[in-house]
Write a structure and sequence with these properties.
This is Methyltransferase. The chain has about 600 residues and is of the alpha/beta class. The chain folds into 4 domains: about 15-255, Roll (2,3-Dihydroxybiphenyl 1,2-Dioxygenase, domain 1); about 260-345, Winged helix-like DNA-binding domain superfamily/Winged helix DNA-binding domain (Arc Repressor Mutant, subunit A, Orthogonal Bundle); about 360-400, no CATH class; about 405-600, 3-Layer(aba) Sandwich (Rossmann fold), CATH 3.40.50.150. The strands form 3 sheets. It has an 8-stranded mixed beta sheet. Strands 14-13-12-15-16-18-17 form a 7-stranded mixed beta sheet, with helices on both faces. It starts with 12 loop residues before the first helix and ends with a helix. Bound molecules: S-adenosylmethionine (SAM).
Length: about 600
């Protein structure tokens, strides 16, 4: 255990504690993976392990403020440690302090002392101590918010610096030494720390004395977190890693935050362009790329207002331009064309939903987060299914909007078109898109589609247009009351996420009651990753809370719900757009009624 020295000639207690905890961290934390658990909690287990595979702990560092010579050596000795050499100047920390507090560099004589620390596992770690001597305090300095600029009393500025640095621990860091001299490894490590752990590049440099390139990162943790900085020490002079690191650094956090905070503007700009039919008006049939005035006439908009909207959409990648003789011509990009009403899998109805009723209800997100309640119902006075049913234009837009993400269904027809399958029952089959795709791909199959009355009408129309309606029975009904029997495959596509666990249990129980012993249940959903991995499911989980009263779930959560309703989850396979196909059959059913295709057949 580390013994600390105290007394009037000793380091201040706060500095002793910081030094002691750095030595303790080095002594006990051992592996990079273990250290990352606290330093970068956003990283998943596998990501921590892959970082740890390339790095070893190098040191933990703190900044202390001795008021008399010998205090630091005394503090180290009190902990059973000794400096491994004479102090050397630290220009990096000095320059950072100067930039942070505007104090003259000659008043910031920061030096570095290193001391070896025996580790629990029999190895040897190191603490790195930055030391900034300050004169003994003579009364209270300025408060924590006051600037310590040039011209101000340097003593007062230093006291301010000490107070803030002790509270914020800006210079405390943990360093990892990269155990490979490989640019691909450096790029991968930087990617994990910046993109996955959410750390911010914070400078770097080459130290010719040690022939080491150092990249600095700051964690997203609040000020005062014990080790908010991380350093990667790479062997040699790594000019391309440094350049890439500095490039990302120029991405100012304030700017990033502004772009994030104004996300609602994007939603509205896209919805307004969709509403005006901007992308349709730029299609070849409508005259193709156009100058602003011409386009304003085509869509019935104010030229100046439209000009501003188009410029913004161009920065979002939805339009190419402005170009041409008047530098005011725009053309749709591939992304923008997805918003044309006649585009295959058009996302226009979805843009109208997200910029319309769901935009209004997202304004009540605070209510949803505070109470766990459905903000849509709170705002509109009814759950969205009955509300839309009473507001037909929105009901149609909702049904059409489900079509936008029907790319997810691509691999499913091949799964159900198997020997032993004759009848597919799509429970809450929506606008019939999935049933259409299944019946169109397999002329020998028949379908049953269960839906609410007005949705059935839309589905019938869609299947009729595709020439497959004669092989489908349309059933108006409520899946909480009964589900049609006699199917070989039952589908619940994007249904369970609309409901809480109790609602899901009711739906699954009705399916179980209706399904013949050997029938298979297919569930299509987005799975919430069990760790910090990104997926569309993460954002839609919030959408489900706010607008539907349901939730996205992890695979284990679905496995449990299925088990409680008497099903075994037998396989999962990925679908496009972060979707997953879950195949389940009754508990104890001897064998699948028909062959189960392999994952590669589904991918
Ligand atoms: C999110 S949509 C999914 C539609 C379709 N399965 C798909 O993946 O595109 C959910 C569907 O559940 C239907 N629904 C809601 N409550 C229902 C009920 N009680 N009985 C039958 N269908 C219902 C809605 O009409 C809606 O079409």
């Amino acid at each position: 255990m580390i013994r600390q020295q105290t007394g009037p000639t000793a380091l201040a207690e706060a500095d002793l504690a910081a030094l002691g905890s750095a030595a303790e961290l080095v002594r006990t934390s051992g592996t990079v993976s273990r250290m990352l658990r606290t330093l970068a909690p956003a990283l998943g287990e596998a990501e921590r392990e892959s970082l740890a595979a390339w790095c070893v702990p190098a040191h933990a560092a703190v900044l202390v403020f001795p008021t008399a010579p010998g205090q630091l050596a005394g503090a180290l000795a009190g902990m059973g440690l000794a400096a491994s050499g004479p102090p050397t100047p630290s220009t990096v920390v000095r320059d950072r302090l100067r930039a942070r507090y505007g104090i003259r560099p000659d008043a910031l004589e920061v030096s570095i002392v290193r001391a070896a620390v025996p580790t629990e596992d029999g190895g040897l770690g190191e603490v790195e101590v930055f030391s900034l001597p300050v004169p003994p305090t003579a009364g209270p300095g300025p408060g924590p918010g006051s600037p310590g600029g040039f011209g101000a009393d340097t003593g007062a500025c230093l006291r301010h610096l000490v107070r803030r640095e002790r509270a914020e621990r800006n210079e405390a860091h943990v360093a990892f030494r990269v155990a490979a001299a490989d640019e691909v490894v450096f790029a991968g490590l930087r990617f994990l720390l910046v993109e996955r752990a959410g750390m911010r590049p914070d400078g770097g440099g080459y130290n010719p004395h040690e022939d080491v390139t150092v990249l600095y990162f700051r964690s997203a943790a609040p000020a005062g977190t014990p080790y908010a900085r991380l350093e990667l020490l790479m062997p040699g002079h790594r000019t391309s890693a440094l350049a890439a690191h500095r490039l990302v650094e120029r991405d100012e956090p304030g700017r990033t935050l502004l772009e994030l905070m104004t996300g609602a503007w994007r939603t509205q700009a896209i919805a307004v362009a969709a509403e005006l039919g901007v992308f349709d008006a730029l299609s070849p049939d409508a005259g193709g790329p156009a100058a602003v005035a011409d386009l304003a006439a085509r869509v019935g908009a104010d030229p100046d207002g439209l000009d501003r909207l188009l410029r913004y959409l161009a920065t979002l990648g939805l339009l190419a331009g402005p170009y041409g003789p008047g530098a005011d011509t725009y053309a749709p990009t591939g992304l923008g064309e997805l918003l044309r009403a006649d585009a295959p899998h058009s996302m226009r109805p979805l843009a109208l939903m997200y910029g319309g009723p769901f935009y209004e209800s997202f304004g009540q997100l605070l209510y949803a987060v505070r109470t766990g309640g459905d903000a849509f119902a709170h705002h509109f006075g009814a759950h969205h299914f009955p509300y839309f049913a009473e507001h037909p234009p929105w009901d149609t837009a909702f049904d059409q909007s489900m079509q936008a993400s029907s790319l997810m269904f691509g691999p499913i027809p091949a799964v159900v078109d198997r020997p032993g399958v004759d009848v597919v029952v799509d429970v809450a089959g929506g606008n019939g898109e999935l049933m259409k795709q299944i019946l169109a791909a397999a002329p020998r199959l028949r379908g049953v589609l269960l839906e609410r009355e007005h949705v059935v009408a839309a589905a019938r129309g869609r299947l009729r247009e595709a020439g497959v309606a004669d092989r489908c029975t349309f059933r108006v009904g409520d899946f909480t009351e009964a589900v049609p029997g006699g199917g070989d495959v039952y589908v619940l596509s994007r249904v369970l996420h609309d409901w809480d666990d109790r609602g899901c249990a009711d739906i699954l129980r009705r399916c179980a009651e209706a399904m013949p012993e050997e029938a298979e249940l297919l569930v299509v959903e987005r799975l919430l990753p069990p760790d910090g991995q990104n997926s569309l499911a993460v954002a839609w989980n919030l959408h489900m809370l706010c607008n539907v009263g349901g939730r996205e779930r992890t695979l284990e959560h679905y496995r449990r719900l299925l088990a409680e309703a008497g099903f075994d989850l037998v396989e999962t396979a990925p679908l496009p757009l972060d979707g997953s196909l879950l195949r389940a059959r009754r508990k104890g059913a001897a064998a699948p009624a028909f062959p189960v295709p392999s994952r590669s057949e589904l991918a």
